[in-house]
């Protein structure tokens, strides 16, 4: 973990005008936030949920809530962090979201920064075009409790495009969309102090794009089986980061006749949404991994391989480190 922190800092030396805002949804841990905030050019953290921000605000001192909020209860809870001395920024892609952010800040007696969330290709949240971004920035500016700060432009699925040149192509489209929005905002008198986005999988393209003022890598701190499938320019798996997250399991059942081995960790211990975990020290040809439900993972060991014994510890690399 500490090595990944060091490697990110070293990588960013080539991009002195770009700041870091690591995404804390990966770890949700005060201790890791404290380590990240010690790294040069780290200006704060991202949180995906208000509950994360409440726990991590004191360690970070500057939080971007990178997901839309549409209820007064949540915007009040977020705005209250300002009274704890934390700088708070939220994102919005609708007038309703802007209104509840303003209401929450008004009730708490504080001012909150707001970014227009821009859809740059993932087709999830975000305004669709520069004109809509300008309209929403203008609406934000009508509220004394809010301060327009810029835009968020994150493309999550681009992080997991395997082939390097294809990842670069998608990132290029993102950069062009961001540039169009920023130009439109500037033409209408809106300066973007913050242009935030990017992630672990597209970090090299985002950092060198010339449009982002800060980046939001998250998974780099841990790694997972899915990111391990991303390829570099040489066609080999990306080797910039070291795997630091493992699930320690124990063999609780073994059947020599069927060559079935059962581990004591299942869906409650790790996510299968990005595929099965990798088994440390075992090549893919040596076994097949299968979900055994809530509490178990099943290993089907190939003929000729030595079966693990009861009580043996097996380390797994989750398919997805931050579901």
Sum up the structure in keywords.
single chain, 28% helix, alpha/beta, 8 helices, 323 residues, six-stranded antiparallel β-sheet
Short description:
The chain is of the alpha/beta class.
Overall description:
With 323 residues, the protein is of the alpha/beta class. Helix content is 28%, strand content 20%. It contains eight helices and 14 strands. It has helices at 2-12, 30-37, 50-60, 72-79, 95-108, 130-140, 164-187, 203-207, and strands at 19-20, 45-47, 62-65, 87-92, 112-117, 146-153, 194-197, 214-215, 247-255, 260-263, 278-279, 287-291, 297-301, 313-317. The chain has an eight-stranded parallel β-sheet with strand order 1-8-7-6-5-4-3-2. Strand 12 and strand 13 (297-301) form a beta hairpin. Helix 2 (30-37) crosses helix 3 (50-60), helix 4 packs across helix 5 (95-108) and helix 6 crosses helix 7. The mean pLDDT is 97.
As a percent range, the share of strand residues is: 15-25%
Query: Structural class, from secondary structure content?
Result: alpha/beta
CA-based shape: elongated
Number of helices: 8
Radius of gyration: 22 Å
The N- and C-terminal alpha carbons lie at a distance of 19 Å
Strand order, biggest sheet? 1-8-7-6-5-4-3-2
Summed over residues and divided by their number, the pLDDT gives a mean of 97
Task: Give a count of the beta strands, DSSP E runs of length 2 or more.
Answer: 14
Q: Secondary-structure element order, as H and E?
A: HEHEHEHEHEHEHEHEEEEEEE
Poorly predicted parts: none
Helix content: 25-40%
Instruction: Profile the largest sheet.
Output: 8 strands, parallel
